[in-house]
Specification:
By secondary structure, the chain is an alpha+beta fold. Helix content is 47%, strand content 7%.
Length: 512
């Protein structure tokens, strides 16, 4: 309801979905989301396609030729007719569109479903735009920046349905690959650490996440790929994503020749310049929603101190981290569904750990939709602030805002938790993410578990977040936050220190 006031902000480059000025500036991959008839535009495009110019030649002389041309190119005309059956999305967009932000359960669910929002009296203000159009409009910048055409960018019901079916099938079929995925992740991480003293944590996690994504959605054989290429693709996606938020920095997909080449090398028999065949249609949703969650979950587990106050850990002498690490390491060795959900008397399951990372650090902080309410001439952009919503107390009598903003997997072991419908990290019906079934939880637990095993206790985090950000505060969720973080190998003890320790151990053994 509107008890949590919707805030209005002018559209700006700092939003996750800075779209409208970008759509107006776009010159390629024009959105095909329509609302009203435009017969004049239809006729003009037909004339452009046949190269006809006004002259004194009569229509009778051209009739037969025009009919033959249309028949031979009927797939092309079908595209034109579909595109001109309704009005282009640009006609819905105004440069001064404002964003209304909501962070309560009822409104967030309705926004995700593109239904509308509730007014102050509890009456639903219905959105009159088609569901796919409302969802796709704020994502047109991604169509321009990455040349994609998938469920997130289209208003075509057939494309949407086919994409969702394909993604669901791919993730479901991956259920037998988790053992090899865990082993591959450990081998890659080990290879990056074994001869290094300092490792870029951004590069490490982006690359290991991209490897999983390529394997899951395109069946890439990870033993044959160049990790240099994989990392290049991951970093370029992040760069283009940031650049796409402002019209002044947006780069057209057609200019990204190096990325095109990398994609064709990693995923052969695809065409990055054909929106329907672009490998990024599947890579972007799987990779982009995962790597930042893995990063924060790993740091929370391995380097931030979470005292177990219930068992004498007030002075950090007993940490919940130890239970979590033990659970994740056991899961990586046998990444079955049973082990994913296996809880111990001391702590949460690997599934609880992954779910908590998704709650505190949702993959998409704000989800944007374009609405047009009944009686309004102009559309409005609305946003469901999932980060704010998921950090609100479920039971205000036993939970505080501060407690709910802290990473605490044991939250899911209590009765006062969010229901499945209220947990919105995967969106809401009819646009629920296919990874919600189990893929996302297993992916997070596998990658974070592999990292905890290979990093172990031989590495420290630099800079040390515990000095600047206590575990009683959530980590920053900005895309570029912590890009400076490094893993630094602990200094090895000198030979003299080792000899002294050995002598002390021998002396102690003799005394016993």
């Amino acid at each position: 309801m509107d008890s949590l006031t919707a805030t209005q902000t002018q559209q700006g480059g700092n939003q996750d979905s800075d779209l409208f000025s970008l759509m107006l500036a776009s010159s390629t991959h024009r959105p095909n989301i329509m609302v009203e008839n435009d017969s004049g535009g239809f006729v003009r495009e037909i004339l452009r396609n046949i190269g006809w110019k006004p002259s004194l030649i009569t229509f009778c002389c051209l009739g037969a030729g025009l009919g033959l041309y249309v028949y031979q190119h009927r797939p092309r005309w079908a595209q034109i007719i579909r595109r001109h059956a309704t009005d282009p999305i640009e006609k819905l967009v105004q440069s001064n569109v404002e964003t209304d932000v909501y962070d309560d359960a009822e409104d967030c669910i309705k926004i995700l479903a593109t239904d509308g929002v509730y007014d102050i009296d509890g009456v639903l203000r219905k959105n009159n735009l088609p569901k796919l159009a409302s969802r796709a409009a704020p994502n047109q910048r991604l169509q321009h920046a990455f040349g994609i055409c998938n469920s997130f960018t289209t208003n075509d019901e057939n494309i949407h349905r086919a994409f969702k079916t394909q993604a669901t099938k791919l993730l479901k079929n991956y259920k037998n690959e988790w053992s090899s995925t865990a082993q591959s992740a450990r081998q890659f991480i080990h290879s990056q650490l074994q001869d290094a003293d300092t490792v870029d944590i951004f590069k490490l996690i982006q690359t290991v996440t991209m490897r999983l994504s390529l394997s899951a959605v395109h069946g890439v054989d990870l033993t044959t790929v160049s990790n240099t290429r994989v990392h290049f693709l991951a970093t370029e996606i992040n760069r283009l994503w940031v650049a796409s938020k402002k019209a002044s920095t947006l780069e057209p997909w057609s200019d990204q020749a190096d990325i095109h080449q990398t994609l064709t090398m990693l995923v052969p028999n695809t065409d990055p310049l054909n929106p329907a065949e672009n490998p990024l249609n599947l890579i972007l949703p799987s990779y982009e929603t995962l790597w930042r969650v893995v990063l924060r979950c790993f740091v929370e587990i391995n380097f931030r101190k979470h005292p177990d106050t219930a068992n004498g850990g007030e002075n950090n002498n007993v940490l919940k981290n130890d239970y979590w690490i033990q659970a994740l390491r056991a899961f990586v060795k046998d990444p079955s569904v049973d082990n994913l959900n296996k809880r111990t008397e001391f702590g949460a399951s690997p599934g609880d750990i992954a779910k908590e990372a998704l709650r505190v650090y949702p993959p998409t902080r704000r989800v944007y939709r374009l609405f047009r309410y009944e009686g309004d001439a102009q559309p409005r952009e609305v946003a469901a602030d999932l980060e704010s919503y998921q950090r609100k107390p479920v039971n205000e009598q036993s939970q505080s805002d501060h407690e709910m903003s802290i990473f605490n997997p044991e939250f899911w072991m209590t009765e006062s938790t969010q229901t499945d419908e209220e947990f919105l990290a995967f969106g809401a019906s009819p646009f629920t993410c296919p990874a919600k079934t189990e893929f996302a939880y297993r992916a997070i637990a596998t990658l974070v578990g592999a990292l905890t095993i290979e990093v172990g206790t031989d590495w420290t985090l630099s800079p040390n977040l515990n000095d600047s950000l206590p575990a009683s505060e959530p980590m920053d969720t900005d895309r570029e936050a912590y890009s400076e973080l490094k893993l630094r190998r602990k200094e090895k003890k000198g030979e003299e220190e080792k000899e002294v320790e050995m002598e002390m151990e021998l002396k102690g053994a003799k005394e016993q």
